[in-house]
Fold Nudix hydrolase domain-containing protein.
Amino acid sequence: MTRLSASLELAKAVRHACPHAFIVLWHADAVEDPELRLSAFAAGANMVTCFGSHLDEALGKLGSIGRDRPPGGAAAACACPWCGQSGLTPDELWTHAPLHHVHDENRGGPCSVCGEAADNLAVHIHEEHWPGGPRREVRRGLGSAVVIHRKRDNKFLMVQEFAGQGFWVPGGMTDEGESIRASALRECQEEAGVDVAHWVDPATSKPVWRLVTFYSALEDEAAEAGWRPKTLPCFESAGACWVSLEQLARVPLRSARIPTAWYPHFAAGGAAKPLELPADALHLFPDVQF
């Protein structure tokens, strides 16, 4: 049995014995091997990382539960709908749920904070019980996606999506009043933990939904030095990982259209288009700040 296999078996045993445990797999390939990440989460891990700063942040969040309760604050009467951990305040449940259960399947049912029945408790807890008051997402039919290309080895940065939905490019819907470029920047930081600046290639998706795909090239190792792809789980994603074309064929994808269309194109040295909407697409985006 390899050390990795032994670690995964240990994770399974700990998870079986203690549903509330926070299990971390520390591995050098945490952001290089998507299959490793999937195997670890399937075995019961909550986090897969190789970055000490990310682990410190996770431990800080875990340590705040039960410690930072203000006098006269909300009663600790909430329970987690996934693992059953009880004695949580609403704010603690808001922290606990994505940190422990971002990879778990979505659940519906009554909320232990407000009693409301929700089809998706992960979204309900995140939006309705945000510390300080509700923050409901206004969903628009306009989004951005980003192809992030590491040229030295032709790997692409992908997001390990929530609820076990597989991998996809960093991306999502634009917020009210947000430009498409700003949306792309924000989604890269929220979902993949990186800041990018090289962009191209507008493309449309289905008639009702409009999607602009950008391209960002990581030209050399010096440019990569300050990068730390995300490994701290949160509501946005379970983390991010560099994925080769060979690995892409072996992992589940939330949607195959963008990765399978563009990754081979850019890996083969394909060109990117200018950072502007082509004239024949302008009529599709009359209301959009590019």
In short: The two ends are 53 Å apart (CA to CA). The chain has three domains: 1-64, 70-136, 142-270. The longest strand covers residues 142-150. Confidence is low (pLDDT under 50) at residues 198-208.
